[in-house]
Design brief:
alpha/beta, Arc Repressor Mutant, subunit A, D-Maltodextrin-Binding Protein, domain 2, seven-stranded mixed beta sheet, 12 helices, transcription cis-regulatory region binding, transcription regulation, Molybdate transport repressor ModE-like protein, WH_DNA-bd_sf, LysR_subst-bd
């Protein structure tokens, strides 16, 4: 058999078996009788079998035709499953939204944004990758996510960006640290002279701190320990390792229960913008545009 039969010809054969008339089968399928005759002849030629006995009283299936018709019904049923399954997959792909976010944004803001988005579209499936700002920007630049959220003060070339929130970094220590009870603010000189528990390079929090210190002109940040997550930094500070500079979003609960204490600062601007990023030249798909709108509406001011 040089070429398999096409689904339209199989459907014609099944309809012919049901109606006993090639003309009626052609009418139901919306084709002319000559076209139906030609299609049926082609099917018989491809299979190498006589499928229909034609007479003035109509068309009846041969024994081979009856067997082929039963197989054709199964093929068409499986084809229908395939087509419906493909449609379902297309609908799911259309409803999928791939997001990457830096840790502070992912832990404290994105869940609320996604919840609000899914109220309007309960079927929407959202996948979230959590990593540092540099990695988020790279994922967005390569088009591996539909939308990214970063907390770094700079955005690489090749990306469009929009501010979605404003954040503030705070100097925090354990309650037993000497700075916990001081009333005089910590200035740039003292802060740069004190080893800090810091996030890894590529972190938006680390980059914001280093740029803020560079603007003061007093020197570079000294690292007491370099840790790969905000949770690890918070734990180290609470255990008494030393001061850290973290987002107020990340330490809000710790400050409320006095697990950590915020130290006043002066002469250093630790505010920053949190931004959405996506590839330049690309129009956001509807789910990504909707999430961006939700994030922008929910923008919270610096405290």
């Amino acid at each position: 058999m040089s070429k398999p039969p096409d689904p339209e010809s199989l459907a014609l054969l099944v309809r012919l078996a049901e109606l006993g008339s090639l003309g009626q089968a052609a009418t139901q399928l919306g084709i002319s009788q000559p076209a139906a005759s030609k299609r049926l002849a082609t099917l018989e030629k491809r299979l190498g079998l006589a499928l229909v006995d034609r007479s003035t009283r109509g068309s009846t299936l041969t024994e081979s035709g009856q067997m082929v018709t039963e197989w054709a019904k199964r093929v068409l049923a499986e084809l229908d499953v395939l087509l419906h399954g493909a449609a379902a997959l297309r609908a799911r792909v259309a409803a999928e939204l791939s997001v990457a976010a830096s840790m502070t944004v992912a832990e404290h803001l994105v869940p609320g944004w996604i919840t609000e988005l899914r109220r309007a579209n309960p079927e929407l499936y959202v996948g979230l990758q959590v990593t540092n700002s540099a990695a988020v920007a790279e994922l967005a630049r390569r088009g591996e996510v539909d939308l990214g959220f970063v907390e770094s003060p700079t955005v690489p070339r090749g990306l469009r960006t929009r501010r979605v929130a404003v954040d503030r970094l705070a100097v925090v220590v354990a309650p037993g640290h000497p700075w916990a009870k001081r009333r005089r603010p910590v200035g740039p000189v003292e802060l740069v002279g004190t080893p800090l528990v810091v996030r890894e390079r590529g972190s938006g929090t680390r980059e914001t701190l280093e740029r803020a210190m560079a603007r003061t002109g007093v020197g570079k940040v000294r690292a007491l320990a370099e840790l790969g997550s905000t949770t690890a930094v918070r734990g180290a500070v609470a255990a008494g390792s030393g001061p850290a500079v973290l987002s107020v979003l990340a330490v809000e609960a710790d400050l409320a229960d006095r697990r950590l204490v915020e130290v006043p600062v002066s002469g250093i601007d630790l505010r920053r913008e949190l931004r959405a990023v996506w590839p330049a030249g690309r129009v956001l798909a509807a789910p990504a545009a909707a999430l961006l709108a939700v994030a922008t509406r929910a923008s919270r001011p610096a405290r």
